[in-house]
Specification:
With 179 residues, the protein is an alpha+beta fold. The protein has eight helices and four strands.
Length: 179
């Protein structure tokens, strides 16, 4: 079976193309796609959409009725396309890939920074400056505390992980001793 990311990629790229051409802007589309993904990820919605008793028109109406944001013509067409192709439940993966395309277009990246201890503004700024230099893009940090790291930080940017935590160093030492 094909990977979900492989199936979702053409839909994300098509949606990104529509968003680029639309006057509403990428930020508005990103919010809309995030709302769709959140709705499609809900277990009750997943169950209802997968119900074989519903036809495509009912699925479209059910899903659009759950959304807070009004749908433009292109947005409704995209939802219709997903329903007709049986891909509506891929919206969380499509949204993830849409954000990646948006970030690449804007020369930016989201960074998940996990630290063993709380970081102050100056430490975050210094870390972000180093990451921007390393990756060559504007970094949008999301900082959280993870006490299991013992010390140091773990940074995830896209599919790359920089782990300088004490936990990672202990794991590497353990692996070296066992080998």
């Amino acid at each position: 079976m094909a990977e979900l990311s492989t199936i979702a990629r053409p839909y994300a790229e098509a949606l990104f193309g529509v968003a680029l051409a639309d006057g509403a802007g990428l930020a508005a589309w990103a919010e809309l796609v995030a709302e769709w993904a959140q709705a499609a990820a809900h277990p009750d919605v997943r169950g209802a959409i997968a119900d074989p008793k519903l036809d495509n028109a009912q699925r479209i109406e059910l899903f659009t009725a759950l959304l807070k944001s009004p749908l433009s013509g292109p947005a409704r067409n995209f939802i219709t396309l997903l329903v007709e192709n049986g891909r509506l439940l891929l919206l969380p993966e499509i949204a993830s890939q849409f954000v990646q395309l948006k970030n690449r277009h804007e020369g930016a990246a989201d960074a998940d920074i996990a630290s063993a201890f709380p970081l102050d503004e100056a430490q975050v700024a210094e870390l972000v400056a180093g990451l921007e230099k390393k990756f060559g893009v504007k970094i949008r940090p999301s900082v959280r505390v993870d006490a299991s790291l013992i010390g140091g930080v773990r940074v995830t940017v896209g599919d790359q992980v920089l782990d300088t935590s004490v936990r990672a160093q202990l794991d590497r030492m353990r692996d070296a001793l066992v080998a």
